[in-house]
Amino acid sequence: MRKLILYIIFCCIVFNANADHITGGQIYYTLKSVSGPNYTYAVTVKMYMDCNSFREFYNPAYISVFNKKTTARVQDLMVSLTNIEVIRLTDVDECITNPPVVCHKIGYYIFDITLPASPDGYLLTTEVFFRVNNMNNLVSGYDNVGATYTAEIPGTFLLTAGPTNSSARFTGSDLVIICASHEFEYSFGSEDPDGDELTYSLCNAYRSDNFMFGVDLTPAAAPPYPSVPYDPEFSGGRPLGNNVHIDAKTGLISGIAPGPGTYVVTVCVEEKRNGKIIATQRKDLQIRVTDCSFTSATLADQYLLCDTSKTIYLENLSTSALIQSYNWRITDNGGATLFSSPDPTATYSFTDTGKYNIMLDINKNQKCADSANSTILVYPGFKPGFDYKGLCVDKQTQFIDISSSFYGTVNSWQWSFTGQVTLPETSTLQNPVYTYNSLGSKLVSLVVADSKGCTDTVYKTIEVVDKPPLNLAFKDTLICKPDTLQLVTGNTGKFFWTPANLVSNVADPNPVVMPDRTTTYYVELDIDGCKNNDSVTVNVVDHVTLTAMPDSTICSGDPTILHIVSDGLQFNWQPADKLTDASLKEPSATTNNQTLFTVTANIGRCIATDKINITTVPYPVALAGNDTIICFGTSALLHGFTDGNRLLWSPAGQLQNTASINTTALPATSTTYTLTAFYDKGCPKPGIDSVRVTVLPKINAFAGRDTTVVVNQVLQLNGSGGTTYTWVPAANLSAANIANPVARFSYASDNAYKLVVGNEAGCHDSAYIQVKVYKTRPSIFVPTGFTPNKDGKNDVLRPIIAGMQKMEIFSVYNRWGQLLFSTAVEQHGWDGTVSGNPQPTGTYVWMVKAIDYTGAPYFTKGTTTLIR
Fold first, then answer.
1. What residues are paired with 374 via a beta bridge?
2. Separation of CA 764 from chain center
3. CB 100 within 8 A of CB 178
4. Signal sequence: where (predicted)?
5. What is the chain's Cα-based Rg?
6. Is the N-terminal amide bond of 224 cis, ω within 30° of 0?
7. Is there a single domain that holds both residue 121 and residue 202?
């Protein structure tokens, strides 16, 4: 079977906040020499970084040495960066689609250290203040925790020659790829110069809490080192989930890769000599799983039908566009084929329990062919579960396994207790005891297995408290002698009530009491040694007190609160349909007429009754009249009505008389006027109404600019400014009651038109236009002279257009041909200046181009005299 190796980006040793993109590393050493009691070691710190990282390796970096047993600090070294190496993966398997770019920068810190022989041995340590971001197997929000990396030098206590040790060092290619949800193998095997026996395990990654903002370089903190906060679905022993394992003898990690992302993985290797473990070396990595696709046949290590079903659904755990064919086969232990299929997925229902074999071939006899084998356990009826007792902080919590197996025996338990201030802790006992040292929510997981090979995981969140909750339904209450009362706790556990002689059952969580005088009852709750106390006072009376508020007068339809003084516990008001809630002690009442309200108060069998008479008075009538529309600049007459004896119009600034029922308003803009009326009939509140006076915009009548045409030329008039239009006179117009009639003249004349413009309120304004009709061909006339002396007469030289559809350009030149003025806008002309400078008296040449009303081009030129 093809095995895909992990795509890994190693997390490395970092020494200040600038190196938080370091992605892996290890520390190893070799004995160089011995001189008397002193041993000299060549130490290598090897760290990794993505090639695309903009960060730099620390230079220098701190390496700290501690006594392995006492954790006392021995010395701190500042080590310079020795060299940097760049490695790249260039030979990518052609059966991988969407392969990632694999490139690492490797930084080496190589130095010698001399230490005297010690019975306890030494621990070499360096720290990373921030790991890379967004790691998928850590608790959300804690992915940027620091990291601590170590290597151990043995002492003489376990082995006389312990200090002569050269450490194990991890080997294997760093240029590897892993695709999400694909099967893989990756060797974490090591070599040991001393030939020691090596044992491998997946272990907790160390975090670092030694970082101080503003301090770039600090020595490593002293051991012990806390674990990173793993997400509940992961742990140090399961950093890539339940489908990935390590071979203790070879260091080979294998299984089904998790989803795309970055995962913290730490591998520990123990060096054993003469049957004794003399040192443990570690490699802490960030493994990056990419969303690539490997053309492989990938199955889970094992398929479990252990719940209630005997039907299995199978699919290739690897997806790739390069897969062209499938062949599924399920067999029993004797090799007999029970099922086969060429489909991409397979579904099969087993008729009996047992262990079965499954085989998958893809692309058989083709390019990128592969195959996979696995087993299926069919033993339904396996149910994981647990219970617990005792949840007080700093007290033991007993966890109780309640898992069951119909066909086998539950025989394996792996507990994980998270939420601690320090490490998440584990246990393999069936019914462990655990003590929480902090309050709050704690997640507990149990991985359980049975003798048939079934395994499953159950999670529960528990709440650790300083004392068990004791939820009394009330703390103080009232009863009327000789009524009884049930005290309610809403809890389970062991109870003890006092005074015992006044309680129906001192152990009952909800006992009945019948005191003949006011009594305070005390209760103690004990849940597995976790205790809490509370009390309730029962006040005893022999009657109900009830005094209602005096009768009252209100405005009709207004809500009012019905006040009483009473020690009653329950209340009933009538009539209920006029109240917000007839069971309230002081409800809100709303009525339009006189109403007598009756209230009954009771404490058990003790009852009292009283009445409140509410008289209503209507609001004063206020009618402001109908909304109206007026023309701009005109007034509006406001006609109001009221049965009150006082009134007020507002706003006052635009009104002739604010105290008169009929008044004149002269608003500049649309305004809402409010009429407020009062009277002295008992309702102190005013009647209010409003009227809206809408002021239409001022009419800006426009008939167009004066113009000239020639006989039989069509002239389009364009009036504007309102909603209705009337042209006077109507002669020579296509219509006299529209904004844009067409005019045509059959003779030469001067014509003046008046345009009357109106709006929806009947407001009017007028404008005028002069139309001069020439009995010529379409022409443009330019005066032969002009006097720009600013006397308002003949100051501007402008063309007079007759019979033209459009003037394209009008230009003026001096006698040297220099352009002085040019425009394409009709009615614009030359004022005899250039850039503000007056031009001298003399003759000037003009030129004009246009298009006449028939569409023909027109051009003419001439001279004019500027006279000053």
1. 358
2. 60
3. no
4. 1-19
5. 50
6. yes
7. yes
Q: What DSSP line would sit under 21-86, residue for residue?
A: TEEEEEEEEEEEEEETTEEEEEEEEEEEEETT------SSEEEEEEETTT--EEEEEEE---EEEE
- Structure tokens, 196: 């020691």
Asked if residues 125 and 150 have their Cβ atoms less than 8 Å apart, the reply is: yes
Position 822 in a domain: yes
Spatial distance between the Cα atoms of 853 and 776, rounded to a whole number of angstroms: 13
Report how many domains make up the chain: 8
Q: Rounded to a whole number, what is the largest CA-CA distance in the chain? A: 134
Question: Which residue has better confidence, 174 or 588?
Answer: 588
Looking at residue 525, which CATH number applies to its domain? Answer: 2.60.40.10
Share the mean pLDDT of the chain. Answer: 89
Q: 819 has which bridge partners?
A: 813
Answer yes or no: are the C-beta atoms of 537 and 513 closer than 8 Å. Answer: no
Structural domain including 737 reads 707-774
Residues sharing a CB contact under 8 Å with residue 833, sequence separation 6 or more, in sequence order: 788, 839
- E strand or H helix at 276, and its extent? strand 276-289
The owner of tokens 């520990």 is 268
Strands 646-650 and 197-202, how do they pair? unpaired
Which DSSP state fits 119? S
pLDDT, tens digit, 9 for 90 and up, residues 210-247: 654 434 467 889 999 999 899 888 999 999 998 899 99
Position 471 in a domain? no
Enumerate residues 6+ apart whose C-beta is below 8 A from 604.
Answer: 479, 480, 483, 569
Label the pairing between strands 386-389 and 354-362. Answer: unpaired
pLDDT for the residue numbered 438: 83
Copy the structure tokens of residue 374: 């696995």
pTM: 0.46
